[in-house]
Amino acid sequence: MLNKEELDLSRIPQHVAIIMDGNGRWAKLRGQERSFGHQAGAETVHIIAEEASKLGIKYLTLYTFSTENWNRPSNEVAALMALLFDSIEEETFMKNNIRFRIIGDLTKLPANVRERLETCVAHTANNTGMSLVLAISYSSRWEITEATRQIATLIHKGELTPGQIDSNLVSQHLTTSFMPDPDLLIRTGGEVRLSNYLLWQCAYSELYFCDTYWPDFREEELYKAIYDYQKRERRFGKASEQIS
Asked: What long-range pairs does 157-165 form, CB within 8 A, spacing at least 24?
């Protein structure tokens, strides 16, 4: 049992990204349809978002729906879209001073879902607490391809030269340009891969993998991930002697 009091609140990661995995397997273990697991996972989102906000995390980015997820059975995709529409609780964001943001290829979303999301983004824009960012219809390869296309267009227009391209410029054209790179990336559900999620941004992120399925991921699991993060030495390519 790990308590919040064991964390160093002066070293809370500024940006935590999570791959919320295991909803379907959690439901299967209970003899239920996958949609049952997604509904339970949506409840976990609210619990973890509130706790992350209380801990002082500034950005919480959740891998909600990947571009590859469009290839799932149509009934599951429809259920996920309906859940996404129903689970946006603006009241919770306002109560916790949370700013809501979204990243991804939103053109693929059903019109009613996109409108719902964009309305919540607008209504919470003046909140000054944690930013909860949902990655929806998102993948890193899509994002980097889009950034490349934008930069190529600027060169074609004569507004940019190839010699001006550097990593900062690329970062400015990513959908995550409004926030820092993740300090900590958590993946639940026992898989050990990044699944096309924030590949550019996670170049120096600390990675934490756990077997807990997302619907069972509660406050103590978040504390464990942060506690593990706080035990690590973040060198960013430097030697230990240069950090101390």
From this structure: none
